[in-house]
Amino acid sequence: MREVMSELLAWWRAGETVGMGTVVATFRSAPRPAGASMLVGPDGSAVGSVSGGCVEGAVYELAQEVVGSGTPALERYGVSDDDAFAVGLTCGGILDVYVEKVSRETFPELEEIAADLDAGRPVAVATVVSHPDPALLGRRLLVRPEGIVHEDRVVDEAESRLEVRGLSGTTGSARADAAIHDDALGLLGVGRSEVLEYGPDGERRGEGMRVFVWAFAPKPRMLVFGAIDFAAAVARVGSFLGYQVTVCDARPVFATASRFPEADDVVVDWPHRYLEAEVEAGRIDGRTVICVLTHDPKFDVPLLEVALRLPEVAYVGAMGSRRTHDDRMARLRETGLDEHELSRLSSPIGLDLGARTPEETAVSIAAEIIAGQWGGTGERLAGTTGRIHHDEAHVGTD
Question: Where is the XdhC- CoxI domain (predicted)?
């Protein structure tokens, strides 16, 4: 929904009705992730994508039917051996798409959610997409980390208590609300959207009720240490991949916003001191990637000593030649880091693409980060067999 929010919100504010199809589950080589959305506007226009073009026509027609009837639908699109092109999903994947009617009446919380996204506040939207009682389809909960209250809402005393707890709305069952709230907080913490299944009244070991949780977490962070030309290229690629990018260097003459226009923040500080402060402030999590490009031991070693001791970060990579790497590892061992901690370091940084320029090197670093996130091997697909798309390699990436 995030990628189509501006168009959706404009129609919603104008009092229009929109059909929206959202990928809620994927299997095998599905081309789009859970949470990808497509809109069918009141003028008949299509915005967004649920499959990269494979089943958009079928979803378009279903969305028009849903807008007319007002009844949501959960549809599975895939291929079969008997009729591989029945729905046009030729990639071999399977998609579950939830199609609903969106208007001020059916989705009154939309502007509130949009405000959270604009402000970078974490919010999860849990929607009932399947239930034995059709009257409960489309019921929604908004889940936020406890203690976060939406600043633009005026709520009564009872709702205020729910907001402080981090929950607003209802599925019609207090038991289900409590279970969904707890599970959605976990998904929000790692920035992952998926379908949860419960019994009709929220029983954890039951089945019959399926709830799709959109987890809108703030962007994952990319910390780039070393204000060099390679850092500018890495910041540019990191921003393109959706990271909140910070460039940090202790040298004010080099760490300037004009040299790093693609970075969200440029910080002048000693790298290890900055990282320690960010950890202390709770701004480093399991989705954070750290790229150390200084290849100067007086900066690298204290910084990596902090980074490699963190319990959860998605990636730590350091630039340098083989000789620099060997010297760096010896110095890090002298700090007391053990072999398990040292094994978390990607050094020399990046995949072997034969990169030479800053831009090519940035692509090789990004490729290594992506491979680590999804469990890829870095091999040429033409030389492999089996599935193209991997499941997430570890919880903690977006």
Answer: 11-78, 117-199
pLDDT tens, 167-207?
Answer: 678 888 889 999 999 899 888 877 889 999 999 999 988 89
| Residues contacting 49, CB < 8 A, separation 6+ | 32, 36, 38, 56
What's at 250, amino acid-wise? A
380 vs 78: CA distance, rounded Å: 26
Closest CA to 220 of 387, 372, 27: 372
252: how many CB neighbours lie within 10 A of its CB? 10
How many whole angstroms separate alpha carbon 30 and alpha carbon 51? 7
Residues in contact with 80: Cβ distance below 8 Å, sequence separation at least 6, in sequence order: 86
Cβ atoms of residues 295 and 303 within 8 Å: no
Torsion of CA 231, 324, 220, 352, to 10 degrees: 90
Strand partners, 68: none
- The mean of the pLDDT values for the chain is 86
Cβ burial of 383 (10 Å; 0-12, 13-18, 19+) is: exposed
Give the whole-angstrom CA distance, residue 16 versus residue 298: 60
Q: How confident is the model at residue 61 (pLDDT cuts 50, 70, 90)?
A: very high
Tell me the C-alpha to C-alpha distance, in Å, between residue 59 and each of 16, 30, 104. 19, 15, 22
Asked whether the beta carbons of 171 and 136 are under 8 A apart, the reply is yes
Mean pLDDT of 98-106: 95
Confidence (pLDDT) at 189 = 76
What pLDDT is recorded for position 34?
Answer: 85
In sequence order, what DSSP letters do the residues of 42-85 get, joined into one string? TTS-EEE-SSTTSSHHHHHHHHHHHHHH---EEEEE---SS-TT
Q: Please state the φ and ψ torsions of residue 247, each to the nearest 5 degrees.
A: -105, 130
